[in-house]
Write a structure and sequence with these properties.
Elements (H helix, E strand, L loop, with lengths): L4 E7 L2 E9 L39 E5 L2 E5 L1 H7 L6 E8 L9 E9 L4 H14 L2 E8 L2 E10 L2 E7 L22 H13 L12 H14 L19 H14 L1
């Protein structure tokens, strides 16, 4: 794996030199974009809107429209905004990860100690395991300050990037059902029974990206000149419009399987 970031974790006066790596990989197939007419590859160019000429990466800078005036930012400007944190993952406080709403979770990273940081890394890992807590921290990546939680996962420390409060939309604009009278007691009892009947211990290994597997099979079949037929859509539905009857039928189907 290739390290995405190199720096140090700090908690208190302890500094741990570390590297972080992506903990995930994309299961989607890497598809090329082609011209429908001659199947030539589609290429994207960064073009100057005034001259129409292509601009190389080293000549591209970022800017911000501030009150009608365009302010150009160089790479050094991003570092100046928070220079003291550029190479530091700073643990601000330790929190109970259970209290963090899953809506805030964004991207997981593996944290690996550099040679000089192995002992301090093991100490932090042991302390988190002992206390069942997670380290709430901030760090700079790609010129942006990020918030994250550091937790243990087996022998590794995993840093989960989380969203800031202002990045979560409120639900007030949604048309949501409210009030206790909407759900009838008998319906709730039946729904709870169905939930319990379908309950199982979470095991992620049971679930595969079947769509990508099927798409790859289709690609192989087309490459071999085979005719590919679309599968028939299977929709599970009930002819009963009454919610109670739908719940009762659902329980029967599960028991019969």
């Amino acid at each position: 794996m290739r390290a995405l970031w190199t720096g140090a974790i700090s908690f208190g006066l302890v500094n741990i030199p570390v590297k972080i790596y992506s903990a995930t990989q994309d299961s989607n197939l890497d598809l090329d974009m082609l011209d429908k007419n001659d199947h030539a590859h589609i290429k994207y160019k960064r073009v100057n809107e005034n001259t129409g000429k292509e601009v190389s990466n080293e000549n591209i800078v970022k800017g911000f429209d501030y009150e009608g005036s365009l302010v150009v930012l160089e790479n050094e400007d991003f570092k100046k905004a928070s220079a003291e944190k550029t190479d530091l993952i700073e643990i601000i406080e330790f929190v109970n990860a259970v209290e963090v709403n899953t809506m805030f979770y964004e991207t997981p990273y593996y944290v690996e100690p550099q040679k000089s940081g192995s002992k301090a890394y093991a100490l932090l890992r042991a302390a988190l395991e002992e206390t069942k807590m997670a380290g709430l921290c901030t760090f700079i990546m790609r010129n942006k300050e990020n918030l994250a939680l550091i937790k243990t996962e087996g022998n590794a420390l995993v840093m989960n990037k989380i969203r800031f409060q202002e990045e979560i939309r409120e639900s007030e604009e949604l048309n949501l059902p409210v009030g206790k009278d909407i759900v009838k007691a008998a319906e709730l009892k039946m729904a709870v029974a169905l939930v319990k009947q379908l309950s199982a211990k979470f095991d992620l290994s049971k679930y595969k990206d079947n769509y990508s597997v099927n798409l790859l099979k289709l690609i192989k079949d087309k490459a071999q000149g085979k005719e590919v037929e679309a599968p028939k859509l299977r929709v599970t539905h009930s002819t009963k419009k009454d919610l109670m009857q739908q719940l009762q039928e659902s329980l029967k189907i599960k028991k019969a399987s």
